[in-house]
Amino acid sequence: MTEIALKADSLSVSRGRVPVLSDITFDVSVGEVFALLGGNGAGKSTTLLTFLGFLPPRSGSVTVLNKPVTQNVEFVRQKSAYLPEAANLYPHLNARENIKYFLSLAKVPRSASDIEAALDEVSLATEARGRRLSSYSKGMRQKVAISLAILRQAPVLFLDEPTSGLDPVAIDEFNQLITKLSAAGTTVLMVTHDVYGACQIAGRVGLLKAGSLVGVFEAPEGGQISPEEVHRAFAEGA
Ligand SMILES: Nc1ncnc2c1ncn2[C@@H]1O[C@H](COP(=O)(O)OP(=O)(O)O)[C@@H](O)[C@H]1O
Ligand SMILES: [Mg+2]
């Protein structure tokens, strides 16, 4: 039996008085990469914020590792790593300093050699590690954020538009890294408006339109989801 890591059950969420998500149901298995695909304003970021306990469900529920988020916010944030659209690391600190600082906030003690090993794992160039993040590309900042997730041993990764603004080489590196983490058991929920990127990396792609989940596409055994098929559904009625 596959274990469920994340579940949205008849979830509706409003922001202010405006309904943003309507009756959404999906789950993500342990070690799966699930991509939620949708246009601007579809409710993708709202979904992630709800899983992290920053926005309350108006009705329905979200669970992380079988615990309802609303009553277990601390547990959920401890188990999760969240990469927002704009990485929230400190530009005036270097990679090692950022990592040490955020590990100490999370009360996760790690040695200097653990930190170097995690930076090796994400392939951040050694010469860059002592440089301020203000000189980094988005891809490099993302590597630092993912190495932090690795050091925290976060079993769940929430990614908001992770490949937007990355060059093709950085996208390939990112895809390889996410595939490796998921193979090791990390559950990944990413949201994106990039049809091809979603199909390239995800085992399943959910299509979100104006706050409703209108379809879920699944990769065939050993293959990839057809981007043409998803693109047609994405563009339909747009
Ligand atoms: N801070 C906010 N306050 C009120 N409404 C918001 C806020 N952020 C987003 N919204 C609204 O919620 C809807 C979904 O936004 P969002 O989840 O950010 O979409 P996406 O990430 O898919 O682009 C949009 O209509 C947007 O205007
Ligand atoms: Mg968004």
Overview of this structure, please?
- The protein is an alpha/beta fold.
- The chain has a single domain, classed as Rossmann fold (3-Layer(aba) Sandwich), CATH 3.40.50.300.
- The chain contains eight helices and ten strands.
- It has helices at residues 44-51, 73-79, 95-105, 112-121, 138-151, 168-183, 195-201, 227-235, and strands at 4-15, 18-29, 33-38, 59-64, 67-68, 80-83, 156-160, 187-192, 204-209, 212-218.
- The strands form two sheets. A six-stranded mixed sheet has the order 6-7-8-3-9-10, sandwiched between helices. Strands 2-1-4-5 form a four-stranded antiparallel sheet, with helices on one face.
- Strand 1 and strand 2 form a beta hairpin.
- The radius of gyration is 18 Å and the shape is globular.
- Adenosine-5'-diphosphate binds at residues 15-16, 18, 20, 38, 40-46.
Map the helices and strands.
Blueprint: E1 4-15, E2 18-29, E3 33-38, H1 44-51, E4 59-64, E5 67-68, H2 73-79, E6 80-83, H3 95-105, H4 112-121, H5 138-151, E7 156-160, H6 168-183, E8 187-192, H7 195-201, E9 204-209, E10 212-218, H8 227-235
Parallel strand pairs: 3-8, 3-9, 6-7, 7-8
Antiparallel strand pairs: 1-2, 1-4, 4-5, 9-10
Helix pairs in contact: 3-5, 4-5, 7-8
Bound molecules: adenosine-5'-diphosphate and magnesium ion.
